């Protein structure tokens, strides 16, 4: 759902740019409360994983494909504020290096794909985990539903933006019906990917899933009038205490394989937005990307003639650049918290909370 230059007029693009900048600023501050020594490197990995999986377009209808948006996945794994930053990093890398998503439309894309998906998904996810049984399966089920709903929500948000600042005269009602309809189907794919990924992380390190924190408390005993942890009340079962370094290495390896090899077999059909734009005339005033001549434009390496090798190298480069950029951002945010936040400011943070409660 990457919006190219020319779909949305300049005033609306500027307005969404302001919204996106404000949301990123708020997210940088909020992420300080979400990130700790475990989740800071994981957040960079989540950004790289989203980049890799977004290269895997899957067919959803005749002549149409879809791909992961990633807002729900990022929010559930590392927190909503950090999730907005993860997807924003991915969009920035895609726009600058791969000519995917217009540069003048960067605010539109961040607002739509990072903010809307994350806010909608995490709000729904938190509501579901409060009413569902406190089990790992419930977390995975809530992740599925939240991811499913987030995609048509983003499609509707784009339609509203186009109603305000679209550059062609089209029937907004027809565009809304087409956008929401096809993106419900894409949302099913998003939900499957999100649920499988969240479930896989919960299976090996449930304490690393931000959205599952605090669902199950440690067993407490009263000793001499004070509550203490019961002996052997390990918040993370021994079978699920895989080193976070192993989780990180495994996730990076999976991202490299997906982007460097599996992406070659992705669907070549236009994604939901591209198909709707072509069918309804939204793309009449689309503009060439400002970095269309980039050596990595269109996810290929310039002067490499073999399509498989070219796409694979571009994917590997993209994963590497995204994980470095993302990890750098999140370590800097974490460092700001460590250096500048007083102990009283962290009373209710996930770090402190994790000493009295644990994941599912």
Automatic annotation (TrEMBL):
Protein name: Cobalt/nickel transport system permease protein
Subcellular location as annotated: Cell membrane
Pfam families for this protein: CbiM, PDGLE
Transmembrane annotation, as ranges: 42-60, 72-98, 110-129, 141-164, 184-204, 247-266, 313-333
Keywords (A to Z) from UniProt: Cell membrane, Membrane, Transmembrane, Transmembrane helix, Transport
InterPro entries: CbiM/NikMN, PDGLE_dom
Species this chain originates from: Streptomyces paradoxus
Ranges where the PDGLE domain occurs: 245-335
UniProt cross-references to Gene3D superfamilies, sorted A to Z: 1.10.1760.20
Listed Low complexity bias regions: 340-360
Source species, domain of life: Bacteria
GO BP, sorted A to Z: transition metal ion transport
Cellular component terms per the entry's GO annotation: plasma membrane
Region: Disordered, residue numbers: 338-360
Membrane topology: Multi-pass membrane protein
């Amino acid at each position: 759902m990457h919006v190219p230059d020319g779909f949305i007029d300049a005033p609306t693009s500027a307005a969404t740019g302001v919204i996106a900048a404000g949301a990123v600023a708020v997210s940088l501050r909020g992420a300080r409360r979400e990130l700790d020594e475990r989740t800071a490197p994981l957040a960079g990995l989540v950004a790289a994983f989203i980049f890799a999986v977004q290269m895997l377009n899957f067919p959803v209808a005749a002549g149409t494909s879809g791909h992961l948006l990633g807002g729900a996945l990022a929010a559930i794994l590392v927190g909503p504020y950090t999730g907005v930053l993860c997807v924003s990093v991915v969009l920035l890398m895609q726009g600058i290096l791969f000519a995917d998503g217009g540069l003048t439309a960067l605010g539109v894309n961040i607002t739509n794909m990072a903010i809307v998906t994350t806010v909608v998904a995490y709000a729904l996810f938190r509501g579901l985990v409060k009413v569902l049984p406190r089990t790992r399966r419930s977390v995975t089920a809530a992740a599925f539903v939240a991811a499913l709903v987030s995609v048509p929500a983003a499609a509707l948000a784009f339609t509203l933006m186009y109603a305000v600042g679209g550059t062609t005269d089209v029937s907004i009602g027809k565009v809304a019906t087409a956008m929401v309809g096809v993106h419900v189907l894409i949302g099913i794919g998003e939900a499957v990917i999100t649920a499988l990924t969240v479930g896989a992380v919960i299976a090996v390190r449930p304490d690393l899933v931000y959205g599952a924190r605090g669902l199950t408390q440690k067993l407490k005993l009263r000793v001499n009038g004070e509550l203490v942890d019961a002996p052997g009340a390990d918040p993370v079962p021994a079978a699920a205490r895989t080193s976070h370094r192993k989780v990180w290495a495994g996730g990076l390896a999976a991202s490299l394989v997906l982007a460097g090899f599996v992406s070659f077999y992705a669907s070549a059909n236009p994604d939901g937005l591209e198909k709707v734009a072509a069918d309804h005339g939204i793309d009449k005033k689309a503009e060439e990307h400002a970095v269309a001549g980039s050596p990595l434009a269109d996810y290929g390496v310039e002067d490499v003639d073999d399509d498989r090798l070219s796409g694979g190298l571009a994917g590997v480069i993209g994963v590497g650049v995204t994980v470095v950029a993302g990890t750098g951002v999140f370590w800097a945010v974490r460092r700001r918290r460590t250096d500048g936040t007083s102990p009283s400011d962290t009373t209710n943070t996930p770090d402190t909370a994790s000493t009295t409660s644990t994941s599912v």
